[in-house]
Known about the structure:
Number of strands: 8
Largest sheet: 5 strands, parallel
Strand order of the largest sheet: 5-6-7-4-8
Bound molecules: adenosine-5'-diphosphate, magnesium ion
Shape: globular
Strand content: 5-15%
Helix content: 55-70%
CATH class of the largest domain: Alpha Beta
Radius of gyration: 26 Å
CATH topology of the largest domain: Rossmann fold
CATH superfamily of the largest domain: P-loop containing nucleotide triphosphate hydrolases
Order of helices and strands: HHEEHEHHEHEHHEHEHEHHHHHHHHHHH
Distance between the termini: 47 Å
Amino acid sequence: MTDETWGNVREELLKTIGKNNFATWIEPLKFDGIDDGVARFLVPTSFFGTWVSRNFADRILTQLNRSGSGAQRIEFSVQQKAVRPVPAKTADLTKKGVIPQRASDEGETISAPLDGRFTFDSFVVGKPNELAHAAARRVAEGGPVSFNPLFLYGGVGLGKTHLMHAIAHELRQRRPDLRVLYLSAEQFMYRFVQALRERQIMDFKEMFRSVDVLMVDDVQFIAGKDSTQEEFFHTFNALVDQNKQIVISADRAPGEIKDLEERIKSRLQCGLVVDLHPTDYELRLGILQQKAEQYRQQYSALTLADGVLEFLAHRITTNVRVLEGALTRLFAFASLVGREITLELAQDCLADILRASDRKVTIEEIQRKVAEHYNVRLSDLIGPKRVRTIARPRQIAMYLAKQLTPRSLPEIGRRFGGRDHTTIMHGVRKIEELAAQDNQLAEDLHLLRRLLES
Ligand code: ADP
Ligand code: MG
């Protein structure tokens, strides 16, 4: 097998295991020849070899065989490195390339690769994300730290990762003197575990404590992972003490992350916590228009009928990733069949996505989620008990049923153990009233709504 074949195998792997896994685990592999049916690879550390062998060996082997290499087995050996000097000062670390400025730098790259498309230019701003966007812009200026950390949270596909990459791009351009480190919480954990195994925990600490801007994506991942949390907490504190900027993202507010230590929650809440709200129609349309503009250049022969983008913005409300996927498919399909992109074509080609987005919230789901949230039994929620700890969640469920489903009050009454429609109306009003004064309740409603609509 030649290096070129390995190149092809890598491309296939990229398709099957995804960009993140590829960048973390396959990219660093060095192909070292094949003989007697054994394909040999050099890996940076033994932990790395074990991990790849456990998780990806089968797929690598399959691809190697597809390319006719005749490999039956894979072996990983640790690449001999020159003995490391004691990593004493931060400046030395930089010189050695341990802390690269750019993701593409050689050496033990610690920053995860950035997606070149995720810039501020390509980020469409609307009501649901304007605060998050403004806060991200501020951090990206690289001026004095005004809030620490910046905590961005919101549901899947609402642009958290996009904003974080945009900050990193911008900072690298404006302030090339700053060391900007972006990685997912998962990668933080892998690196930590790896450092433990390799007995390089001091290097690990040095490395993380010497960055100027630390961005950790999807921090909910480390919830329940005790030693990683502990290390994260220390890193976090050390950086805050040095007045270094930290940016964190998660799929929910700090207080809502289960199994996250209290002290971490409270530190995360110390800075600016901003929420990316679910998209609204205008934002979705804006994003579609921007994307369509790019596609028009790419597929200049295609025409897009009026009303198609509006139709999609109206119908696909789940998240931006799905929305983008729909448009991509639509353009690809239209160019294959050489037809104009019309409403009918969109309906045909996107039938599955449209059907999935059609999913309506049911009263049963609302009852189940509310019962779960307030820790009461479903049977009690529907039953006759009048104690406040049950009656209040019941009214909340009534309120959500009225808001989120097209059911009438009598219909809702029937699903709540045959109650009268006036009882439902009373419940709905009560919650409306309370939500206007009680922040906690308003937040609960917001959260439940999001859970139900996602
Ligand atoms: P999250 O990290 O919140 O799950 P991502 O940042 O990965 O979501 O966003 C999912 C996709 O949607 C990405 O391709 C991203 O570029 C796109 N996207 C999300 N919000 C916007 C926006 N406001 N403008 C343009 N693209 C967006
Ligand atoms: Mg993300």
